[in-house]
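Exercise 7. Predict the joint structure of the components listed below.
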Amino acid sequence: MSNQFHIQNWVKIKNGKIFNSEKLIFDSTEKELNLFLKACYDFLDLKYPKFHKMDGLSKMGILASEIIFRKNKPTEDIALVISNNASSLEIDRQFQESTNTFASPSLFVYTLPNIVLGEISIKYKLQSENAFFISENFNVKLLKNYTESLLVSEKASEVLCGWLDLQNGEYDVFLCLVSKEKNIPFSEENLKKLYCAENDKPTH
Amino acid sequence: MKKLYLLDDAIISPLGFSTKENIKTIREGVSGLKIQQRPNITKNPFFAGIIDETLLNQAFSEIGSSEKFTKLEKLIILAVKLILDKNKNLDPTKTALIIATTKGNIDLLKEPGGFPINRLKLSELGKVVANFFGFAQTPIIVSNACISGGLGLAVARRLGNSEKIKNAIVVGADLVSDFVISGFNSFQALSTKACKPFSKDRDGISLGEAAVAIMVSTEKPEISNVISLIGDASANDANHISGPSRTGEGLYKSIQKALKEASISAEEIGFLSAHGTATVYNDEMESMAFQRSALQKSPLHSLKGFYGHTLGASALIESIITKHSMLNNEIFASKNFEELGVSKPLNVIQKNEKKEIRYALKTASGFGGCNLALVFKAEKQ
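Solution:
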């Protein structure tokens, strides 16, 4: 079963850099999160005004999926399986802060990690399977096992899966598209290698 | 696809500290919702189902020291302990632990109460529970808004089907924290009454807290009557992040997929455990999706009038109550229901009834546009 599914395309966003299937496509010196996200938005020429209302986690999810879906148009039954460490803590803190003066409903709606799945679903019109998992570190085993379980049971014909973490302004994004078509074998080893690859490279 | 068998379960809630007590309270028609005041958040009183800390610490003192654990951790540990006590042979090193929660220990954000800051993290919550019992596998944490608890069962079945796990304990838990009270109050979504699902004069939710746990397995147990999960599906509305689709699109889709997987028709559903939060839009959306699915005649209830909305725990509590309804051939009245207040007809259960149920459906919907449908089967001999 290990060679049944393949990684078609992947994206990594970290330390001001965007890699798309090993190619560095964007490199920014912008340190502040929102300015970096705006720079990515401009770079992709996204034209999606809703983007500016979103929290950081959703913005990153939209940017990363846009890069993948420009190359591989999503099918109707593509499942979204995303995980992270911090859940929605970044926005939770902001909402908590707002309660000292006036509790903000527009912050409260983002205080769940799966809201990004909703934002991706809205942008690409996906009425498909969603799951958000929390784990301490990039959990290769769970992502691989759950993604495979959806593909094997035919609950999805392809899966956008990965890691989308944001805390204290630090972001770490890795998403990949998995389906049957022959490509990079979807194994724990490859998943780990792709997620770690750019992390290990010197950033100069 | 393999079935997932629903085995022993435990519910810790304002209705009682065991499933048995919870069912007795529901049978008697007594709600856990009580009037609450939080003048620092809202001047309006509201109803919520909150677990008494003195009672909780009393129950917990028999198994651990109260001050070392947060309220939510104590609730979860109590629930899991009840199951392990009944299943002495269960090896926690070979059992998966799946925890479904929306906000975990979020109350620590405002009042850390001496706990280290990383205790806010859901993965830490998983670790604390796993370490308490000696679960060896890293817990699987599902945080997918108000479908989390039900999705936890689906995750267990899916991983079980591909033989990644065999036995699991699925937990659902959330608190009524100032955080969520402030949030739902900022949405003007809190009812000033005890919530009234599907009623004409419903005007919002009541919050509730609970921890529930259930043991599940892909292996058929050697008992004559057992309930299994035979169909599961989730589908996003792709419509709005905080409001349900007006046509119930995602819910409709998930029901269709779950029925198809179970190979049964809507007419065979003998009981429907709805989400029924009692907001104007949610209940209306559900009525649309149920009518589109030809489920308008299925006897239906919402348990929110008993528990309030227990967020990540709700769909799992409601699945467990459904399981017992199927085992005991009894269906419970939808608490606080009066006159139907949705645009499509529904068969809301008005008084407890004896009824044999072969197939039941549990549905749930949540923020982020997520929807879930689970089909259960009674296998009786």
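Discussion. The mean pLDDT of chain B is 97.
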